[in-house]
Amino acid sequence: MPSSPGAHSRDLSDSPLIITDVQIEQLQALQLFKDVKEEQLSRLQGSFISRICHLPANETLWPKTGKGDDIYIILSGYVAIWIKSHFNPLEETFLAWRGPEQLIGEMKPKPATISLATVTTCDPCQFLQINNRRFVKLLEDNPIIYRNMAELLVKKIAAERERFEVIQARPARRQVAQALYYLAEERCGQVTASPGPKQIPGIINQDELAAYIGVRRETVNHALVELREGKVIWYPERSHHGEEITILDRVELTKIATVRKSARKPKTKSSEKPRSPASLQLQ
After folding, report:
1. Looking at residue 259, what is its pLDDT?
2. Which of 40, 77, 201, 282 is at a distance of 20 to 30 A from 125, taking alpha carbons?
C-alpha cells in the first residue's frame, strides 16, 4: 500500500511527457473515487499534485515519469507488467496486463524504492499520476477509498484465477483460445453476448501471450496461425510489436477453449498376445 504521509515524496515536475491538467469530472468518473465528495477530490487538483500523462505505444512508464514512487491510474489503453526474477535479477517474469481503471504503484512499500516492475504500454495510453503523499492524506480522511481499492483488487485476483486455468490447460491451442476468450471478456464484456466479430481492445504481443500462458513464443505463433487459418480469429500481418486480434467465430473459439482432447491410447504390438489371468504372477 502507499507509504505514510510523513514520508518524503517528490513533486510532479520532472516528466517529459505530454501533460494536461486534471479536471474534477475525470476524478469523479473513476471507480477509485466512487462516493468521494467533490470538495475532497478537489484536494488532488493542481499541477504539483496530479496530472494526466500521455504515453505512446511501446514505451516504458517509469523512466518517462521518474522513480516510480507516485500512484498511477490507467485512464485509457493497456500496459504489460514484467517483474524481475527472484532467482536471476537479469531475467524478467511476465506478471499481467492492466487496463482502464486499474492502479499501478499502489503496492510499493515505500516511495523512495525504485520499482522492480517494468511497465510497458501496449498501445497509446493515458495515466492519471497522483503525488503519493497527497494521495495517502486523502485516504486517511476518506476511508471509503479503501473499499474502492478492494473492489479493484478483486478484479485483479479474478484475472489471476483465469490465468491459473489457462496455464493448466492442454494443448497449447486450447490455452491460446482460453487466453483470448478471457482477454475479450475482461476488456469488452461477455464473448457470446452479441453476434458478429469482436475485436479485442489493445495490441497483443506474442511474447507477452507466450509468457502469460507459460509456453514458447513459437508455440503461441503456431496456435494463432492455426486459429487464423481456421477463420476462428483474424489479425493483420505480423508486426514486431504485436497485433490487434479479432474473434470471428465465437462459438468455435469457445468450443476449442472448453473441449479437452482425449489422450491417445498407447499402441500395443500386434505380435504381443494378451496374457490370461492365470498366467499373471505376483512379483
Report:
1. 85
2. 40
